[in-house]
Recover the amino acids of this structure.
């Protein structure tokens, strides 16, 4: 088989292009743009055995130092963007679910006959094993038996997002129950001196008290009740 | 002239056809039987793979759950799906030291070099984030199993592969794994390992378990199939030690000099901003 001369050149050209791109990316990284702005967390970061199915949200590294007012402005813009994205994702998921459902039903019907004999045996074995497992499941661990307890690792980070949204929603109280991604809050929400309450730094910003706290995404500032005496 | 010859030819043809049909009939039956045989054989093999896969997974679970102490290094990577849909991979290394019934120490270093320490002392849960120069602490609720669940579910902290540290790992797997299948005998860093594919409701897990009596996990890949972008979490296990040197100092409460104390966010009472503002006004009166 004879190859045209240009076809021999293609890999070389592609290689040169890739090398160029790699060099450019490397230069960008050296310039400090590499990890900045990318979220480290999401459904897979928790390494749990179940998933809440969320996008990477939370603290955006490299975007620290945001004041509360900046956070509020960013969040109101981000919120509408995210709500649009959430609606689109919901529609996509629903479509996907319905497609999957019909596929599964079809496949299940085909497989049903084939599996009928062996399934009975497996079911019996599994039922016995499950029964044994359930007998021992709660032993020594109070309230640990709830399935998917570690899906809250993703949920926890959404909880971090609730914390963030509360910070964000200070200017828009009607939206205080809407769960949106945590904005970058890696500095006190306003420039005031901290007050130590039980050793934990609190800040009084505007009309709201914030406590310094640690969430899945790192340090966050949580709206809290006024400390005793304030 | 031709007609006398045609008649015998026709007769011969009919006889031959009949003979062929008779000869072919058992063949057809045989072919149908052969078609059923591979299907039954395949079903049998599939069942064998399920049984084998589950047996190896449970052997691993029993070994880990029954170990009073162990130390292992984890080299983890995971996809973080950004709002744009772009997947970005991050890495993390952790050394996990388990001492049942109630001690745990995890030294972790992220791919950006930031270091964190988590210790369950038996009395306290302590998390030290050297990068943020903060630490948080909470009373430890009980055994290692209880504390792991508390740490992940109630405090909302990350603890990758937490389920594998549980003493009730076998029950956990029995409860949550919907199907298991043996894939193949493969090699992880030159060591023969059984490759197993398991499914739970929202996660597909692949597990590589060392061949032999020490059925320890060598690698795990988890795909979060219901999450946008179907991100993966991957971890290699290395330097397994089921008889590690244990000292009380390893599980002492760290003394984080110069670090700021913070609360665990999940422990703080949630206050709606309006309520916070109102409470602040009342407090000011």
């Amino acid at each position: 088989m004879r190859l045209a001369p240009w076809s021999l050149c293609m890999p070389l050209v592609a290689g040169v292009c890739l090398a160029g791109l790699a060099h450019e990316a490397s230069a960008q990284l050296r310039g400090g743009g590499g990890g900045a702005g990318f979220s480290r967390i999401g459904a897979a970061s928790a390494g749990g055995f179940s998933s809440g199915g969320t996008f990477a949200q939370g603290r955006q590294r490299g975007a620290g130092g945001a004041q509360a007012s900046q956070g509020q402005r960013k969040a109101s813009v981000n919120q509408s963007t995210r709500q649009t994205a959430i609606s689109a994702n919901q529609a996509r998921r629903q479509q996907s679910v319905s497609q999957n459902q019909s596929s599964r039903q079809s496949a299940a019907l085909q497989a049903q006959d084939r599996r009928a004999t062996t399934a009975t045996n497996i079911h019996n074995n599994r039922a016995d094993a499950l029964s044994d497992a359930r007998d021992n499941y709660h032993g020594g661990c109070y309230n640990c038996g709830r399935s998917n307890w570690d899906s809250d690792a993703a949920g926890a980070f959404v909880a971090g997002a609730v914390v963030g949204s509360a910070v964000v929603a200070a200017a828009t109280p009607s939206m205080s129950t809407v769960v949106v991604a945590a904005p970058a809050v890696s500095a006190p929400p306003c420039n005031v001196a901290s007050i130590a309450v039980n050793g934990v730094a609190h800040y009084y910003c505007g009309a709201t008290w914030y406590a310094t706290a640690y969430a899945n995404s790192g340090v966050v500032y949580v709206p809290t009740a006024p400390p005793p005496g304030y | 002239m031709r007609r006398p010859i045609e008649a015998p030819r026709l007769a011969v043809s009919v006889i031959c056809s009949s003979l062929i049909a008779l000869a072919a009939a058992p063949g057809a039956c045989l072919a149908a039987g052969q078609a059923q045989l591979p299907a039954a054989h395949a079903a049998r093999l599939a069942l064998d793979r399920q049984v084998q896969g589950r047996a190896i997974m449970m052997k691993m679970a029993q070994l880990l759950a029954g170990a009073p102490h162990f130390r292992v290094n984890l080299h983890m990577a995971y996809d973080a799906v950004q709002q744009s849909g772009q997947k970005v991979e991050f890495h993390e290394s952790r050394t996990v030291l388990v001492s049942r019934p109630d001690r745990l120490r995890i030294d972790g270093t992220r791919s950006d070099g930031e270091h964190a320490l988590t210790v369950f002392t038996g009395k306290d849960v302590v998390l030290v984030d050297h990068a943020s120069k903060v630490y948080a602490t909470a009373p430890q609720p009980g055994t290692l199993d209880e504390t792991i669940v508390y740490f992940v579910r109630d405090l909302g902290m990350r603890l990758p592969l937490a389920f594998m540290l549980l003493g009730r790992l076998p029950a956990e797997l029995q409860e949550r794994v919907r199907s298991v299948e043996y894939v193949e005998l493969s090699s992880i860093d030159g060591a023969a390992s059984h490759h197993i594919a398991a499914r739970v409701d929202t996660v597909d897990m692949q597990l590589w378990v060392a061949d032999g009596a020490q059925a320890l996990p060598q690698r795990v890949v988890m795909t979060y199939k219901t999450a946008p972008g179907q991100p993966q979490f991957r971890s290699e296990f290395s330097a397994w030690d089921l008889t590690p040197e244990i000292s009380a100092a390893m599980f002492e409460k760290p003394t984080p000099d110069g670090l700021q104390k913070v609360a665990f966010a999940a422990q703080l009472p949630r206050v709606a901003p309006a309520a916070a503002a109102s409470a602040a006004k009342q407090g000011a009166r």
Notes: Residues 60-267 of chain B form a domain with the outer membrane lipoprotein receptor (LolB), chain A fold (CATH 2.50.20.10). Chain B touches chain A through 83 residues (CB under 8 Å). Residues 271 and 279 of chain B are 9 Å apart (CA to CA). Residues 1-5 of chain B have pLDDT under 50 and may be disordered.
